[in-house]
Amino acid sequence: MIRIFLAALFCFALTQQAMAQLIFENKSNQTLKLATAYYLETDAEQCYHTKGWFTIKPNESLVLIKEKLGHRYYYFYAEKTPSGTKWEGDGSFKYAVQSAEVAFDIKDSDAVATNPTATFQKFIQVDVGDNETYTVSFKD
């Protein structure tokens, strides 16, 4: 009986870990271009990591992080195409991105400040608290 209980508990724990993620869902009527930022902390570096452009079609979702969320704060900037409607912050959190036509993966957003092809966008801060899974929804 104890073995069955422990096996069930182990399966539940695996399921919970597999479900932990950061999700962006597009509930708008236009395609979105998404850029994200989060704090990257490894033995080798400590910096903000920005990545984009992710394309999310109407009524689709993007699972950006497929593991337990390791930080309290994540950041995003999004634009609708073709209308150009933006989801942007108030300017408190600015991170480097490339033009919307170019994919990018920047490990230190501040280090590219002098890069002539990079621009800084106003990102929105998302406080996920202590949640292991969090969903950001874009609506019209």
| Broad structural category | mainly beta
Tally the beta strands: 11
What's the order of the H and E elements?
A: HEEEEEEEEEEE
Rounded mean pLDDT score = 80
Tally of separate domains: 1
Described by strand count, sense and barrel closure, the largest sheet is: 6 strands, antiparallel
Coarse shape: globular
CATH architecture: Sandwich
CATH topology: Immunoglobulin-like
Helicity, as a percent range = 10-25%
In the CATH scheme, the class would be Mainly Beta
Using only C-alpha atoms, the radius of gyration works out to 18 Å
First-residue to last-residue Cα separation: 52 Å
Unreliable sequence segments: 3-18
Strand content: over 45%
Number of helices: 1
Structure characteristics:
six-stranded antiparallel β-sheet; Immunoglobulin-like; mainly beta; single chain; 140 residues; disordered N terminus; 1 helix; globular; three-stranded mixed β-sheet; 46% strand
Characterize the structure shown.
The structure is a single chain. The chain has 140 residues and is mainly beta. It has a single domain, classed as Immunoglobulin-like, CATH 2.60.40. It has 1 helix and 11 strands, in the order αβββββββββββ. The strands form 3 sheets. Strands 2, 3, 5, 6, 8 and 10 form a 6-stranded antiparallel β-sheet that branches. The N terminus is likely disordered.
Task: List the topology elements.
Blueprint: H1 2-19, E1 22-27, E2 31-41, E3 46-56, E4 61-65, E5 73-81, E6 86-87, E7 94-97, E8 104-106, E9 119-122, E10 124-127, E11 134-139
Parallel strand pairs: 1-11
Antiparallel strand pairs: 1-4, 2-3, 2-5, 3-8, 5-6, 5-10, 7-9
